[in-house]
Amino acid sequence: MSNVAIIGATTWGNTLGRLLSNKGITVNIWAKTEARAREFEQEQQERRVKKDLPDCLSFSNNAGEVLHSAGLVICAVPAQHMRQSVRQLKNYLTSSMTLVNVAKGLEADSGKRMSQVIAEEASPISQEQVCVLSGPNLSQEINQGLPATSVIAARDIEMAKSIQSLFNSPDFTVFTSDDVVGVELCGALKNVIALGAGIVDGLELGNNAKAVLITVGWGEVVSLGTALGAKANTFYGLAGMGDLLATGNSPLSRNHYVGYELGKGRPLSEITASMSNVAEGVDTTIAVHHLVSKLNLDAPTIEFIYKVLFETLPQDELSNLLKNRLKSGTAA
């Protein structure tokens, strides 16, 4: 089996690397700096000795070394760094490689999905060679060996099935889809709604109010997704509703955390500065705000979340805005 390369020594990238290497697959992870590569390599050596793991996972800042002989390349850098990272490494990519995006965000300026960004920058890789992995995947739980599922989407379903077999393990089950647009949008857009769910929790308005925001907000997401070419039923499967339930309700979710802290009255700049990882929903909300305006869609819940993120509001005003938003939600 060909080696696997992972672009980005991120929390999710490292989790996937460990998952694959535990199956005996050789995985090389590219870290942004040499210092980070050494740090992760040391941690992995200690983990390998402690748990008697196979010697299959390594970290390096040398792109040529990481991508050499790789048949599958997993793109795991944050969405807003994807274009720059792929552009930096494109000289090491070959037409025989398959690329898999696992970042859950939209490019803030363009509103483009990550598979689109990758295909634009990764020549000679064609768009058909760029797949998407997304689902209810909280890294901390997977690292603990708790069961999880995900969805691999490719335009060629046979390609999706081959990647499915690579990832499948006793505690990580992967399903296939040919709806690349839908699966990718689900992963990105649920982060926006998770921010809203966190805001409700931070304001202590209760689970009833949160259920309304999630339900109405997700209806807006489905409208946006189908307008962009996704299949509606994808949003009610594992990649959509499944991921939304995990991210919108878990304290392990970065996006829920950001929303929660906003609801408590902390400014966004202070919240994000205190975090070691990226909450993709923040910049994705900018992209979604532009998209709904461009497509002339009615998305008041999404617009509310945008307003909370990027306008400074007193906590009592924020609470009143949300209560009014919930009252105006239409029943299905």
So, CATH architecture of the largest domain? 3-Layer(aba) Sandwich
Find the CATH superfamily of the largest domain. NAD(P)-binding Rossmann-like Domain
What series of H and E elements makes up the topology? EHEHEHEHEHEHEHEHHHHHHHH
User: Spans with pLDDT under 50 lasting ≥5 residues?
Assistant: none
Count of distinct structural domains: 2
- CA radius of gyration: 20 Å
Q: What is the SS-derived class?
A: alpha/beta
Q: Mean of the pLDDT scores?
A: 92
Q: Strand order across the biggest sheet?
A: 3-2-1-4-5-6-7-8
Q: How many distinct helices?
A: 15
The proportion of residues in beta strands is: 5-15%
Proportion of residues in helical segments? 40-55%
Number of strands: 8
The CATH topology of the largest domain corresponds to Rossmann fold
Give a short account of the largest sheet.
8 strands, mixed
The CATH class of the largest domain: Alpha Beta
Any key phrases for this structure?
alpha/beta; Rossmann fold; N-(1-d-carboxylethyl)-l-norvaline Dehydrogenase, domain 2; 2 domains; 54% helix
Task: Give a quick precis of the structure.
The protein has 332 residues and is an alpha/beta fold. The chain has helices at 11-21, 34-51, 63-67, 79-89, 114-121, 139-143, 157-167, 180-202, 207-227, 238-249, 254-263, 268-273, 281-294, 300-310, 315-327; strands at residues 3-7, 27-30, 57-60, 70-75, 98-101, 130-134, 148-153, 172-177.
Descriptive notes:
The protein has 15 helices and 8 strands. With 332 residues, the protein is α/β, with parallel strands linked by helices. The chain has 2 domains: 3-178, NAD(P)-binding Rossmann-like Domain (Rossmann fold, 3-Layer(aba) Sandwich); 186-327, N-(1-d-carboxylethyl)-l-norvaline Dehydrogenase, domain 2, CATH 1.10.1040. It has an 8-stranded mixed beta sheet, sandwiched between helices. Helix 4 runs parallel beside helix 5 (114-121), helix 8 (180-202) packs parallel to helix 11 and helix 14 packs antiparallel against helix 15.
